[in-house]
Amino acid sequence: MKISKLVEKIPPSGIRVFFDLVLGMKDVISLGVGEPDFITPWNIRERAIYSLEEGYTSYTSNKGLIELRHEISRYLKHKYGLEYDPEEEILVTVGVSEALDLALRAIVNKGDKILIPEPSYVSYGPITTLCGGSPIFIKTSPENGFKITPKDINKFCDIKTKAIILNYPNNPTGTSYSKAELKTISKIALRHGIIMVSDEIYCDLTYTFDHTPFSALPHMKERTIYLNGFSKAYAMTGWRIGYACGPRNIISSMTKIHQYTMMCVPITSQMAALEALKNGEKAVQEMKREYKRRREFVVSRLNEIGLSCHKPEGTFYAFPSIKSSGLSSMEFARELLKKEKVAVVPGTAFGPSGEGHIRISYASSLDRLKEALARIEIFLSKNKVR
Ligand SMILES: Cc1ncc(COP(=O)(O)O)c(C=O)c1O
User: Fold this and answer.
1) CATH code of the domain containing 240
2) 347 near 172, Cβ under 8 Å?
3) Structural domains counted in the chain
4) Percent of the chain with pLDDT over 70
5) Whose CA is nearest to atom 14 of ligand 1?
6) What is the whole-number distance in angstroms between the Cα of residue 8 and the centre of ligand 1?
């Protein structure tokens, strides 16, 4: 059977390929997957259970329960002073994954260029390709904290450039941007008339400074598609719920696609998300405190054992350099798994600029992190620089 040419063009996820190796191995400490080790807080689970008992089992409005959209709007206003109209500027989606897909499908015409700072979250390039767009990867490096600069953007902007997908705090590097840095990027976006697709799924896990949403910057609300969700901060990956906020014509176009593909997000997840926004902040702050504690430990241990690592401003990822080992990212991850049974993700799973790095998720208990880092230290001592 002939497969679509677009689908043939995209590679399988580098993370999945690697984790197929982990399956079936015993006693592996996995610092690989990008999901919280916490279970969804009890009040959120309980609300979902009770909603089923109450008989909430139907479809909802395509855009999502109006009560939930009101709560999202209230949350964004309270937290960042953002004003989004729950009727027309907010769409509840199946995770940020769907929101991202809808955003790109709503704006991309064949041949449009989409700028993606790299290393990047694994789905940005493939989704752009599936939409008929051309992903243009902008290399970032540890020397500048894996940040893109206005100069980089300028260099890649031309008449065909439609949007930038910016993700901060960033998966895989943990990098985030200060308000001043975001402002300089916004000026370039404005000058070139490009759309910002801003994936801020880790915004509640920012440690170093206050998070600034891109759409809160002057003149940016009208050209930003703001994406956020419940998977990370509320430990709700399995509920598959997120949302997009943006200009009404874009949200209505995204809703049109969502209407024909998903119809709506499962009502049980929407009920849970409503509870998360109303009564979840305390649990988010507790989990955040724990991630922060682990970040201090992981980063200082990595530097101590010779894997230089900048301190991530957010997320639950560290992205240390493994250049001192003399191994490539893939060799390092493979050998570490084989010899010491610790699974990490090779930096190249996120693009070629990830070479020389690995991604370590510290969404694991401190005890497991201690054991994993002890094993990495042993691995390094047995593999002295070639
Ligand atoms: C940067 C980024 N965006 C989006 C997603 C997808 O999140 P969701 O579970 O909301 O689909 C992830 C998940 O790892 C992510 O790291």
Assistant:
1) 3.40.640.10
2) yes
3) 2
4) 98
5) 34
6) 23
Domain final residue, candidates 259, 280, 301: 280
Same domain, 34 and 60: no
Question: With 60 as the cut, is the pLDDT of residue 386 above it?
Answer: no
In a domain, residue 386? The reply is no
Give the closest residue to 60 by CA, choosing from 229, 256, 266, 243: 266
- Ligand 1, residue 98: give the atom nearest the CA: 11
pLDDT for 23-41, tens place per residue? 778 889 999 888 999 999 9
Same domain, 180 and 196: yes
pLDDT digits (tens, 9 = 90+) for 69-123: 999 999 999 999 999 999 999 999 999 999 999 999 999 999 999 999 999 999 9
Of 257, 280, 303, the residue that ends a domain is 280
Residues with CB under 6 A from ligand 1: 34, 95-97, 121, 167, 171, 199, 201, 229, 231, 237, 242
The average pLDDT across 246-253 equals 98
CA dist 386 and 332 (Å) reads 13
Shortest-distance Cα residue to atom 7 of ligand 1: 96
202 and 116 in a common domain? yes
Residues 65 and 156 grouped into a single domain: yes
CATH number assigned to the domain comprising residue 311? 3.90.1150.10
Tell me the residue range of the domain where 338 lies: 5-40+282-380
The conformation of residue 89, written as its DSSP 8-state character, comes to: S
Residue 16 lies in a domain: yes
- Using the predicted structure, report yes or no on whether residue 351 has a pLDDT greater than 90: yes
Residue type, 175: T
48 occurs within a structural domain? no
In DSSP notation, 132-197 reads T-EEEEEE--GGGTT---HHHHHHH--TTEEEEEEESSPTTT-----HHHHHHHHHHHHHHTPEEE
Q: How many helices (H) and strands (E) does the chain have?
A: 13, 12
Position 47 in a domain:
no
What's the gap in Å between 79 CA and the centre of ligand 1? 21
pTM above 0.85, yes or no: yes
The amino acid that residue 217 corresponds to is: L
